[in-house]
Each structure stands twice: as C-alpha cells, then as structure tokens.
Amino acid sequence: MDHGTVAILHGAVPPDASADEQDTLVQVGTIAQALKRMGWRSTAVPITLDLAAMSRRLKQIDPVFVFNLVESVGGVGQHVHLAPNVLEALGIPFTGCGAVALMQTSNKPLAKRRMVENGIATPAWIEADGYAAGAPRGKFIVKSAWEDASIGLDGSAVVDGIAAARRRMAEMTARYGGSWFAESFIDGREFAVALIEDPDRPREPLPLPVAEMSFVDFPADKPRILDYASKWDKESFAYLNTPHVLDLPESDRPLIDQMIELSQRCWRLFDLRGYARVDLRVDRAGRPYVLEVNPNPCLSPDAGFAAMLERAGLGFEEGVERIIAACLGSTTASARRRTG
Fold it and tell me: Taking the domain 4-94, which CATH number applies?
C-alpha cells in the first residue's frame, strides 16, 4: 500500500562533519527504512540557512507530512526552531515538537527559568552575564546554553567554585563561540525518562522504561558525567564504561514514579509533542533534579530512545508509528494496540 510521500528534513551534513553531526545521516536512513516498511515513500531534504530554498523544495515534493530530524541548521543548535517555524507557516504537518517548544527547551537557561517558575526542581546555575538562580556554590558543570550532543563536555567541564566556573565559561566561549552557563553539579545518579505521545491523550504521554546511566570503574578523579566521548568516541573509556541500565531494582520504584511525574510536568509546561526525553540527576539524599528537556531526541537504532521502546514492548517501528499518528492527529491501528 502506498500512503504517499514523506519529506525527511535534516540539517545539511558536510563531508568533514563531526561524529555527532554524522549521526544525523544514520537517523535519516533508519527512518527512511521504517517508513518504507509502513508503506510510505520518502525523500531526504537537507536544509541550510537558505530557508526559501527549503520552502521551494517542500512545495515541489508536496509531502503528506514532514519527519523533522533537524538538530541544527548551518551547524548551529540555536537555529533548531527555524525549520518548524517554516513548516508551521506553510501549514505542513510535521513530527515532533513545534517551534516555540523547540526554542524554549533548546535554550537550557531559559528552560531552567521556566521550570523554576513552575516549581520543577532543577540545579542552581549562573550565566555569563552574571545572572544567578538558586544558591549556586561548590562544584559546577559548564555547558553550552544551546548545543546538545554534549558539545564541549570533557573531564575539565566540572570545576570547583564560581571563579573557576566563570573562567571555564570564558574559555569555552573563546573556543566554540556561543553562550555558556555553569550549573551546580549534582554528584549522584543520572537518569533519562523517555516519553511518547498517545494521540488520544496528548497531555498524558506514555513513559517508557526509565534508564540509568551507569559509570563503571570510573577513577575517583574522573567526573561521573556523560561527556562528548561517552556518546561519540566508540574506542574511549567513557563510551565503553557508561552503559544504560534499564532493569532498575524495585526499591527504586518511588524514585522512578517521582521522576516520571516531573517529566510529564515538563511535557505539559513546554507543550511538547510526539516524543521527548528528560534528563535528571539525583543527589545523595535521593532528590531528583531536571537537567534538560530534550524534544525530538535521537532516533538512531543504537540510541537510548530505541532501547527504551524495545524494553516497553513497542518496538522501534511502532514507536515511529505513534510519532506519525501524533503528527497527523489520528491514531493508527497499530498505535491503538497499547495505550497503557
């Protein structure tokens, strides 16, 4: 059965792109194969900052909907909301979150401000312009305000004290450009809660099995963080020693329920759609804090989201069907099977 054409939208990837950018092409190929099995034809549409060219190409294709895999435009994460802005103006349905949700969640300090305003616990932080929220002190982890994929995170990202945090922010701005901020480092456990939309109940997303990031045999002087190497350097100690654990003990059930509730509150707060992942750290007292809200998380077959779909008993393809059903505003027969 031929359902029609789907445009798979993604940021253009140059030949010399880094590993995290090259992963975009893996996602494109994976989604294209899944769509083919479902009876859709697909065309990959790489985009640049020439948004007029993007509009013309989409009008030529005239897709039933767009599968939006854009994580950056022109290699800049700050532009992630531009593609859905254009799609909304053109009136073309697309998967995942809308432009406003993408802009607000991709700007990590802005997302944290909104969480604080709405009573969602997130670590205290300081920004380069001097703004501080909460009571930041002790150790900090310095992060990009906009870029994802752990850009700029390595063993030197965790520093001691505000002065060191400000020096690190200045160093990273000089090295990579863009905006950086410093977040109080929660020295504890790290988790990810993945959510997928039930098209019949869009405000109540289905939580997938919660994953804990495990830090195996880390030396005492090595920060227990998911840095760039742990995600993209397959030969590194960090990559080999940070497996995702999906079989959590029953004793963690109260904590799991609390983290799911926090994640669903983030979904409603930011008006998320389709699918998302919320990253959290839990301190030594067992208190969870939301680190980041990740709309449209990675759909590579070896990514955490795919593993969570499998563990939930949905499977990757049914997960994609649910994402499409949410985009089109209707529930497919397959997506009706499990609405629990």
Answer: 3.40.50.20
- Secondary structure (DSSP) of 17-62: --HHHHHHHHHHHHHHHHHHHHTEEEEEEEE-S-HHHHHHHHHHH-
Coil, helix or strand at residue 119: coil
Q: How long is the chain? A: 340
Instruction: Provide the residue ranges of all domains of the chain, joining segments of one domain with +.
Output: 4-94, 122-184, 189-210+246-328
Q: Measured between alpha carbons, how far is residue 297 from residues 40, 66, 95, 194, 272 in Å?
A: 22, 16, 12, 9, 12
Q: Is the pLDDT of residue 151 over 90?
A: no
Helix/strand/coil for 95? coil
Q: Are the C-beta atoms of 36 and 24 separated by less than 8 Å?
A: no
Tens of pLDDT, residue by residue over 20-70, are 788 899 999 999 999 999 999 999 999 999 999 999 999 999 999 999 999
Taking every pair of Cα atoms in the chain, the longest distance, rounded to a whole number of angstroms, is 62
pLDDT tens by residue, 314-340:
999 999 999 999 999 843 433 333 333
Q: Does domain 189-210+246-328 fall into CATH 1.50.10.10? A: no
Give backbone dihedrals phi and psi of 96, rounded to 5 degrees, phi first.
80, -160
